[in-house]
Write a structure and sequence with these properties.
Strand order of the largest sheet: 1-2
Radius of gyration: 26 Å
CATH class of one domain: Mainly Alpha
Largest sheet: 2 strands, antiparallel
Structural class: mainly alpha
Mean pLDDT: 86
Order of helices and strands: HHHHHHHHEHHHEHHHH
CATH topology of one domain: Lysozyme
Distance between the termini: 93 Å
Shape: globular
Strand content: under 5%
Length: 294
C-alpha cells in the first residue's frame, strides 16, 4: 500500500512539474511572438521600422534586415563619450607599420599614380590614410554597419541608454546630454538611410557591409552619406565598392580634391583639408607625418 502511494505521489508530482515547465515554454513562445508584433519585426525595432517605412523604405526588405540584428544599447553612449587622444596615432609611426605601408605603396604604385594624376592627391597621402583608417585593410569594422547605425538611430531615448552613460554625462550635464543624444540619433538615422541606399545602388546586402564602431565603411572609412556623394567607380564595373582598392582610393582622392586639395599646397592648407576628412588635428598631423616617411 505504501509503495502504491509512493508511486502515485511520484507520478503526479512529476506530471505537475512537466505541466508547469510546458506552460512556461508556451508562454515564452507566445510572448516572443507578441514581442515581434504583427509586422514580424522585433518589438524593439518597431519605432525605427515604422519611421523608415513612412519615409519610403520597402517594408519587406526592412523586415529581413531588422530580424537579423539585435539592438546594442552601448553604441550611443560610446559615441557620446568618445574622445581622440594624440597617443592613438603614435602607433602608426612605428617602423613595422611604416615598412608595411611602403610595401603597400610599392604593390599598388601604378594604380595610385593613375588616381594621383586625376585628382592631384599624392599617393603617399592616400597610403597614409589607408594605414591609419583600416591598417591597410586589415581591420574593416566592428560589425555590420546596419546594426551599429540602427542602434544609434533608435537610441534617442535617454532613459534607455542611461545605465551605460558615464557619470560625467549625467547630473549637471544631463540636459546637454539629452540634446546631444537627440542630435546624434537623427544623424545616425540619416546615415542609416544612406547606407540602405548605397547598398541598393551597388547591389550589396546591407547586412554584409562591415562598419567601424560608429558606422564608417570601406577601406577609406566613409560614412554612407559620403559614399553616395563622393564614391567613384574607378574600375568601371558599374558599382562603387569601397572595399575594393581602386574605388576606395579614387573615392578618397575625390573627397579630398572636392574639399580643396590642390597639387601645390602649404602645410596649413593640407591640414585644413584633412580636417574635413576627420576633424582631429592629431589625425591630420599623423597623416602628413606618415606620408613624409613613405
Amino acid at each position: 500500500m505504501s509503495e502504491k502511494k509512493t508511486f502515485f505521489s511520484t507520478f503526479f508530482t512529476g506530471f505537475f512539474i512537466v505541466s508547469v515547465l510546458f506552460g512556461f515554454m508556451v508562454n515564452d513562445t507566445a510572448a516572443s511572438a507578441c514581442h515581434n508584433g504583427a509586422t514580424g519585426v522585433p518589438a524593439v525595432w518597431l519605432p525605427l521600422f515604422e519611421r523608415l517605412v513612412k519615409d519610403g523604405e520597402d517594408p519587406s526588405d526592412l523586415k529581413r534586415l531588422f530580424s537579423a540584428v539585435t539592438f546594442d544599447k552601448r553604441v550611443m553612449p560610446r559615441k557620446l563619450k568618445h574622445k581622440e587622444r594624440p597617443v592613438d596615432y603614435e602607433k602608426f609611426l612605428q617602423p613595422k607599420r611604416i615598412s608595411r605601408a611602403r610595401a603597400f605603396l610599392a604593390r599598388n604604385r601604378k594604380l595610385l599614380e593613375q588616381i594621383e594624376k586625376r585628382y592631384h592627391v599624392p599617393k603617399e597621402v592616400m597610403t597614409s590614410i589607408f594605414l591609419i583608417e583600416t591598417d591597410l585593410g586589415r581591420y574593416l569594422g566592428a560589425g555590420p554597419a546596419f546594426r551599429i547605425l540602427a542602434s544609434m538611430a533608435l537610441a534617442s531615448d535617454f532613459d534607455a541608454v542611461r545605465p551605460w552613460l558615464p557619470d560625467e554625462l549625467l547630473g549637471r550635464n544631463e540636459l546637454e546630454t539629452r540634446r546631444k543624444l537627440r542630435k546624434k540619433a537623427q544623424w545616425a538615422y540619416s546615415e542609416l538611410r544612406a547606407l540602405i541606399e548605397y547598398a541598393r545602388e551597388n547591389h550589396m546586402d546591407p547586412l554584409a557591409i562591415k562598419g567601424s564602431i560608429f558606422g564608417a565603411i570601406g577601406l577609406c572609412q566613409f560614412m554612407p552619406s559620403n559614399a553616395l556623394r563622393f564614391g567613384i567607380d574607378f574600375d568601371n564595373d558599374e558599382r562603387v565598392d569601397l572595399f575594393h582598392l581602386p574605388d576606395a582610393a579614387a573615392s578618397m582622392a575625390n573627397y579630398l580634391s572636392r574639399h580643396g586639395w590642390k597639387r601645390e599646397m602649404n602645410h596649413t592648407g593640407k591640414i585644413r583639408v584633412l580636417l574635413s576628412y576627420n576633424y582631429s588635428r592629431p589625425y591630420a598631423k599623423s597623416v602628413l607625418e606618415v606620408a613624409s616617411r613613405l
